[in-house]
Amino acid sequence: MWFLLALLLLPLFWVLVDSVAGIRSRKYQNEKLTERLSEDFTVLVPIYGNMRYLVNRDYLAQYANKVVLCTSSGETEEFYLELGEVVKQYGFRSYRSPYVPVTTTKKRRTGGVIRDRVIRDALVSINELGAYTICIDADTTTPDPLQKLVGALELSGADFASVELVPQEEGGMLVQLQRHEYSLSMRIRYLIPWMLSGACHVGKTDALRAIMTRHSLFFQGNDVEAGLLGDQLGYKAVHLPFKVDTEVPSRFKPWWRQRVAWAGGEFRLFITNARYVLKHP
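Above: the chain's sequence. Below: its structure in token form.
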């Protein structure tokens, strides 16, 4: 009987936790971003597998030599040739990590583990980085300039920050459901600002370097792991209402695949590391 009662109470407990967090975060829903601007930053963009994945190259062009395209040492000659042409055309810089991805006879592996490795190696190896570093995916754009994001972090006095992800407006019920979900999730980040997104986050370069040198480089839950590590290392996190456009799955199969992957990351982070649950319920 007690076992059945526990099974009933556990879901209610988690619903209560989410409800309390949602209510507490309401006071932040009208939070505005400061207009302060800063130019002291570098943009790291992981790109590997195929240069066609760099779909935000025109968006990145406005930041020119602040952008470093980070790749691995296991790409094809055609890839490196096209990378050099893009660097020359847009005025970007490039960095080639010594990491060589594992390959198979069927398909090259280009998962999240490569992303974290090339970013970590860039943070450790490149000396000419700004005081702040923005990590942004190759398909991510922002309506406002990145100078505004860095200026807001400077003004806050924090060491790193999560940002506000905004899914596309067009789409069916599945997309609209995710838009509502993201809206709630972004609001709760005012209470748990260390919950970073791999699509875009910003931090002091020294802080991100210290965090990534301790990162497990596991491919699921890797973005939140970075935030948790920063929190455990004593770095101050803040959530900034800086909007970042992101694309969410519009069909059931990709959505389901994404959710299964997220569940694996959540299990690793919060069940395997259950000793931190009392600090971060």
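The longest strand covers residues 237-246.
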